[in-house]
TrEMBL record:
It comes from Salix viminalis (Common osier). One of its GO terms (cellular component) is spliceosomal complex. It comes from the Eukaryota. It holds the Pfam family cwf21. SMART domains: cwf21 (SM01115). This is SERINE/ARGININE REPETITIVE MATRIX 2.
Length: 114
């Protein structure tokens, strides 16, 4: 036994009695605050709050939402029994209207991302 920790004897325990310290134990800090520390300056401590969204990612997300709506529409048209040519024609029309609607509502164009 070491400082009241561990086994009285390792005999019969299946171990050698070696005691390790807990490396992951975080000791609570005292309530003292160091007076010589500096405060935050300029952009320090913002934690990425002021980052602007990436235009390419926003454009990709917009296109993905349009494609998702087209896949749902295609499934409905197949269930309703339309031919492949009619489905392709309706999907092209729907794609044009969805892209125009998303650009009118503040979406990015390909020229904005470059």
């Amino acid at each position: 036994m070491y400082n009241g920790i561990g086994l009285q004897t390792p005999r019969g325990s299946g171990t050698n009695g070696y005691i390790q310290t807990n490396k992951f134990f975080v000791r609570p800090r005292t309530g003292k605050v160091a007076h010589d520390t500096k405060g935050f300056e300029g952009d320090q401590g913002t934690g990425g709050i002021s980052k602007k969204p990436n235009k390419e990612i926003l454009e990709h997300d917009r296109k993905r939402q349009i494609q998702l709506k087209l896949v749902v529409l295609e499934d409905k048209l197949i269930e309703q029994g339309y031919t492949d040519a009619e489905i392709e024609e309706k999907l092209q029309e729907a794609r044009k209207t969805l892209e125009a609607a998303s650009e009118d509502s503040g979406g990015l164009t390909a020229s904005d991302t470059k």
